[in-house]
Amino acid sequence: MEDKKKEVCRKNWENFWYYHKFHVIIGVFVIAVIAVFVRDKLKQIDYDYTVAVVTAEGIPQEALGELQSVLENIASDRNNDKKVHVLIQNYAIGNKNGESSNPQITMANQQKFIVDAQTGTSMLLIYTDEVYEMYKKQGLFAVEDGTPVKMGECSAFTEMKDGDSLRNLNISLRNIDESLWSKKKDLKAYYEDSERLLERFMYGDK
């Protein structure tokens, strides 16, 4: 009797698998995709600010990491998650002729920087003198009297120990077309918060 039950169960399973194996496989695949999506979503960081560092060649990661820490220590929590996260985007766009040690990466960075500039992703810009000359006629930089402020002259820069590669770069807000404020939610507030962050970086908590 026991053997008969086992045989019936086996045949039922074989019959089920024959007719439904593709449904089972698809179902398992869908569940796996959803699980990966949920996991990535939970790990995703909601950045308060994005800062663009625009140079000919890449900046050492140690210096960028230290800059990130300094900015996070003086920035305000924009999304009210009780944490401050600053994303540093280093766009290595080559020299004024677009030349660099890695042309493919340079081309990709040039495209990314153009998109960043068009959408207002980064309100704070850090850049070389050469980059300033390349883009100043387009009115990209919010610079008074045509003289950008050097990173090394800023109050918060004194906290950096690995900042030699950033010392002679310029820092400023970007100019923004105010018509974008009505098209992109929270853009004006983001600009104003970035302006306060720049002031803290340059002058401290005065």
Instruction: Find the count of extended strands (DSSP E, 2+ residues).
Output: 6
pLDDT below 50 for ≥5 consecutive residues: which ranges?
A: none
| Helix content range | 40-55%
Give me the Rg, rounded.
Answer: 26 Å
Please work out how many helical segments DSSP would assign: 5
Mean pLDDT: 84
Distance between the termini: 89 Å
Order of helices and strands: HEHEHEHEEEH
Gross morphology is elongated
Strand content: 5-15%
In short:
This protein has helices spanning 2-43, 61-74, 103-119, 129-135, 187-203, and strands at 49-55, 86-92, 124-127, 141-142, 149-150, 170-174. The protein has 206 residues and is α/β, with parallel strands linked by helices.
General description of the model:
- There is one protein chain.
- Helices cover 47% and strands 13% of the residues.
- The model has no long low-confidence stretch (mean pLDDT 84).
- The longest helix has 42 residues, at 2-43.
- It is elongated.
- It has helices at 2-43, 61-74, 103-119, 129-135, 187-203; strands spanning 49-55, 86-92, 124-127, 141-142, 149-150, 170-174.
- The chain has 5 helices and 6 strands, in the order αβαβαβαβββα.
- Helix 2 links the parallel strand 1 and strand 2.
